[in-house]
Amino acid sequence: MPILRERKELELIVWPENRQCDRSWLLENIPGAAGVIVLLSEQVNDELLDKAGPSLKVVSTMSVGYEHLFLPALAKRGIRVGYTPDILTDAGFGRIAQATLARLVPFGIRQCIYTGNPAASAFSGSSARDHALAASLSLPAGAISRVPLTDLAVRSDVLFVLAPGGPETYHTVDADFLRRMKSSAVLVNPSRGSLVDSDALARALREGWIWGAGLDVVEGEPRVGTDHPLVNEPRCVILPHIGSATFETRLGMATLAAKNVIGGVLGETMPTELDLNGQA
């Protein structure tokens, strides 16, 4: 990227091919590096950090999620971490959820229920923001409202899982949640594979708890083969995690990742640094 190449004080080593970086190449080239930019598919663990050695100051991941980073090992070594959280995500019924709803309304959607972080608020019903959004989409008053998680499962015809990954949201959609859903319901997950229990979802599809599923993410990616419990389910459509695969979005993520690695290497402010306090 120009933002990196114009920094003459930095020596760049770049994976030369237009495909996922080989693990062996990364391990061969990382010794002595001060910083590294990785993708969601690359495991940053003790093996990689040991190879890098004490020179490594920063790991910058071009992703919203950071489940592929072994945070305790990074914190123990004093290595800073950058990520790209502000390109696609919002908390609660934020920009992404609202944009999703705006695209669904032309297909006849007349009611939207949602839930947020249970620890953030116990509020249920329609907020002033919900009323304003409904009006802007020409939906009736009260068409958008927040409900408890169990109600979301029971009442939804099409359920979109739009949340960050991590321990707090791990298997939010589990067997109990799926059993509560309508047998005619469709589950859509464009967020993180860890949000949905794959084994439970496969059973739900197989036994008719729900009608179908559309997934851009699954547990275990990118190592998803024919033995994955969801791959052979006829009522499950899986895409290879391409929800952010627009030129504008990827360019924004790459630029932010580059700025993070520059800040970390030079000991400057990183635009979006992950707080590792309590991880070591």
Automatic annotation (TrEMBL):
The keyword Oxidoreductase applies. Coiled coil: none annotated. Residues 92-243 form the D-isomer specific 2-hydroxyacid dehydrogenase NAD-binding domain. Pfam families: 2-Hacid_dh, 2-Hacid_dh_C. InterPro entries: D-isomer_2-hydroxyacid_DH (IPR050223), D-isomer_2_OHA_DH_cat_dom (IPR006139), D-isomer_DH_CS (IPR029753), D-isomer_DH_NAD-bd (IPR006140), NAD(P)-bd_dom_sf (IPR036291). Keywords: Oxidoreductase. Residues 3-273 form the D-isomer specific 2-hydroxyacid dehydrogenase catalytic domain. GO terms for cellular component: cytosol. Belongs to the D-isomer specific 2-hydroxyacid dehydrogenase family. This is D-isomer specific 2-hydroxyacid dehydrogenase NAD-binding domain-containing protein. It comes from Phellinidium pouzarii.
